[in-house]
Amino acid sequence: MDRKRVAGPELSVAPLVEYPRDHKRWTPQDEQRHDTKRQPEDMRPIYLKTGLINQANGSAYIELEKTKLACGVYGPRPGKRTGFSGHGVLNCEIKFATFSCAKRRGHMRDPQEKELSQILSQALTPAVRLDLVPKSTIDIFITVLESDGWGSCVAAAITAASVALAHAGIEMLDLVAGCSAAYIPSGPSIASPTPSATDATNATGPSLAPRIFMDADLEEEKYEQGAIVLAYMPSLNEVTHMLQSGKAEGSIVSQSVEHCVEACNKIYAVMHHALVESVGENK
Amino acid sequence: MSRLDRTRTSPHQLRPFFSSQNLLNRSDGSAQFDFGGSSVLCSVTGPAEVKLRDEKLDKATLEVVVRPLVGLPGVKDKALERNIRETLEPLVLSGLHPRTLVQIVVQTMKDDGSIASTAFNAAIMALLDAGIPLSSILGSVTCTIDSQTNDILLDPTTEELAQAKSTHVFVFDNKASIHAEDKSSMDHDQASSTQESSSAAVLFSDSTGLFTEGEYLECAHVCFKAAQAVHGFIRTAVEKKLLKEYQQTSA
Amino acid sequence: MASEPTNLAISPAFTFSASTFQKLHPLEYFRKFASQGVRPDGRLLSSFRPTTVHYGVITTADGSAMVRMGGTTVVCGVKAEVAEPRLHAPDQGYLVPNVELSPICSSAFRPGAPSEQAQVVSEQIHRVLQESKVLDLKELCIEEGKAVWSLWVDVVCVSYDGNICDAALTSVMAALSNVRIRKPTYEEGVVKVAGVDLLDDENSFRLNLARTPLSVSFALLDTDLILLADPNSAEESISQGQIVITLDETGQLCAVSKVGAASSSQQLLKQCIERARERSQELRRIMNQEQ
């Protein structure tokens, strides 16, 4: 029972959604993607803007259609930790708004948020010159207003956070662009949205190479057999973080890494543009 | 004219006051204040050591803790805490005790409506008991507008609050009443009611429900008059206590 | 060496740039502007910041709105879930507003449990919704004694620059007016809704709001009680008190609160109510334009 908030019912659940028999939902068998305008290698259009939060040292807002999140950077400011440290600390916190997902989320920090915060911190730390800010903390706070796919959310968070860091004037080796991709099995035998042990034993399933969908949305993610999130520094041509989950052949992974690197170069242009625009505003 | 509260005959009648100071011997000052069946006990500790985080370099830090009748404090109590703290801050001469803490703990003992007002009155009496320097004292009265009769009921009980269209809590300091007395003694010719209502300066006001501007100002006026009784009561209570102390020490 | 003392004698010992002066003596800095009848951000003492309202910004919510008041940005999302009703009110649903002031929006807020300010604003909104009977909670009943709708009204502050009170209440009212809930069916302890792509009047219902209370805040600067409409965060930090007036569309008052600072005359309160009346009409115009 949370005493520091206006109290509601102790237990509430989302109502059961019942689809009519003839309802057609997207399946991987469909020729096109869930978003019919996109090809498998297409990302969603990115809207990126800096300077939304005027109290923060740097801030950015990113929107990939339905994925919307805001990022604020505070610091470098005195660290909480006592004792001398020659390196600064990068502290990342991701918070999902209670209304950001299909199911309502709690106010408390949950394990998924902790995991995402850690991924973000690992993806950004190699790029930030923390040796230049001893004894300090740089706080990166992210609020996810709406999430449409886990992978795209992480990727957008990385992109937004590095733009916000640059907007705060914190020295970095390079901007970090984040990109995600999902491996979607295209075998005709899979009809259920729960790819489980039955799929693995299926004779036709594994033999067919899965399709790689860049920047998969929530509906596509339901069918994924694996996914990759890549954080990449475009001008240095270096990867800072790679998260690959699920089962995929080596060739698929290396192919999707190539796709992601390519996409990151495109994202880099958008990030660059947003930052140049913010400089123009200051003048 | 009948009220839901059968013990009272008139809508503008307050329940009997009761107060008692210096009840707790481990705190620097304490007081209990009752409006009939509502009772609040308040303790004051200070000036005491302050946490480094809350320290103010040029004045004392005021901290108010509100404990409800049952259970643990919730958001309602937090709101009352803020209201009491921000109302007392300009009253306490905090510049005399820089870098210290004055902690006020408000504990509801019995709840029969008008708890906010009872708490305000208990807090000021506890501050007086603790000898914290104040620029003036305050008096608080609650009133409601009845949803059925549209009457202004002073000092409502829980039952009357449930039937209210709107609820108004007012706090007045005695600076305003001193000015009002001065003015009314200076120029008798002017209509005293308009004079009084315009000079009834509001220290704290919190109204919810549905009401018009006219009703609001009317409530302020009625409560201002009633608050004079509270001021008088507090003054008498403190005088009596001091007299008793004087007699004890001289004896 | 010899020239140094003479230099000191001619020029004053310290000269500050305006921004240094602002940091050292924020109150004095503000008074310099106020004496000329303006504020550091160029507004008159009685003017409000530009405000925008956008509806339906969050598709995962059942109703949503984003409100920007100057530098303050809040997003409000309403989620409808099914819960058991209270024992003493078996046919009434829940309406639960909460305001989140997370550390993203200002360095004044720390991570963790809600700050006092967040709790107070949540409580203020909760009381206004409850006391001025904005929504008949019986409308949220699905099956008496068994299941009701619980509306979780969550306000997230994305950027904080003062006057969270007005921004939050405006976003809550806008989001509530934007709510569309699928018509439920109750069968043997299970509440089902039809899954459809498009919500229309056939398969969903809107909330029947009795009134739309909107609040208007003023900050009080002590000593001479200077009244500042729609204070930003710098002005809030130097002010001693605030007056909040909440009105519905007919001009009826829903809440009046005056907290902190010295006693204010009724003249001042009347003045605030008058200004609040104009401002809330303007806010309503902005809200209706966007809808």
From TrEMBL, chain A:
Region of interest called Disordered, as start-end residue ranges on this chain: 1-39
Subcellular location: Cytoplasm; Nucleus
InterPro entries listed in its UniProt record: ExoRNase_PH_dom1, ExoRNase_PH_dom2_sf, PNPase/RNase_PH_dom_sf, Ribosomal_Su5_D2-typ_SF, RNase_PH
Keywords, ordered alphabetically: Cytoplasm, Exosome, Nucleus, RNA-binding, rRNA processing
Molecular-function GO terms, alphabetical: RNA binding
Source domain of life: Eukaryota
Pfam family, one: RNase_PH
Entry's Gene Ontology BP terms: nuclear mRNA surveillance; poly(A)-dependent snoRNA 3'-end processing; rRNA catabolic process; rRNA processing; U4 snRNA 3'-end processing
GO CC annotation: cytoplasmic exosome (RNase complex); nuclear exosome (RNase complex); nucleolus
All residue ranges annotated as the Exoribonuclease phosphorolytic domain in the record: 42-171
CDD domains, alphabetized: RNase_PH_MTR3
Bias (Basic and acidic residues): 19-39
Family named by the database record: Belongs to the RNase PH family.
UniProt protein name: Exoribonuclease phosphorolytic domain-containing protein
Automatic annotation (TrEMBL), chain B:
GO cellular-component term (any): cytoplasmic exosome (RNase complex)
Ranges annotated as spanning the membrane: none
Predominant location: nucleus
Localization annotation: Nucleus
Top-level taxon of the source organism: Eukaryota
One Gene Ontology molecular-function label: RNA binding
GO terms for biological process, alphabetical: nuclear mRNA surveillance; poly(A)-dependent snoRNA 3'-end processing; rRNA catabolic process; rRNA processing; U4 snRNA 3'-end processing
Gene3D superfamilies documented for this protein: GHMP Kinase, N-terminal domain (3.30.230.70)
Keywords tagged on the record: Exosome, Nucleus, rRNA processing
Domain Exoribonuclease phosphorolytic residues, every copy: 13-133, 139-190
SUPFAM superfamilies membership: Ribonuclease PH domain 2-like, Ribosomal protein S5 domain 2-like
Family as reported in the entry's similarity comment: Belongs to the RNase PH family.
Protein name as annotated: Exosome component 5
Organism: Dissophora globulifera
TrEMBL record, chain C:
Protein's GO biological process: exonucleolytic trimming to generate mature 3'-end of 5.8S rRNA from tricistronic rRNA transcript (SSU-rRNA, 5.8S rRNA, LSU-rRNA); nuclear mRNA surveillance; nuclear polyadenylation-dependent rRNA catabolic process; rRNA catabolic process; TRAMP-dependent tRNA surveillance pathway; U1 snRNA 3'-end processing; U4 snRNA 3'-end processing; U5 snRNA 3'-end processing
Keyword rRNA processing on entry: yes
Domain Exoribonuclease phosphorolytic, first and last residues per copy: 48-181, 213-278
The organism's place on the tree of life at top rank: Eukaryota
Keywords carried by this UniProt record: Cytoplasm, Exosome, Nucleus, RNA-binding, rRNA processing
SUPFAM superfamilies in the cross-refs: Ribonuclease PH domain 2-like, Ribosomal protein S5 domain 2-like
InterPro entries, A to Z: ExoRNase_PH_dom1, ExoRNase_PH_dom2, ExoRNase_PH_dom2_sf, Exosome_comp_Rrp42_subfam, PNPase/RNase_PH_dom_sf, Ribosomal_Su5_D2-typ_SF, Rrp43
Family note: Belongs to the RNase PH family.
Protein name: Ribosomal RNA-processing protein 43
Gene, per the UniProt record: EXOSC8
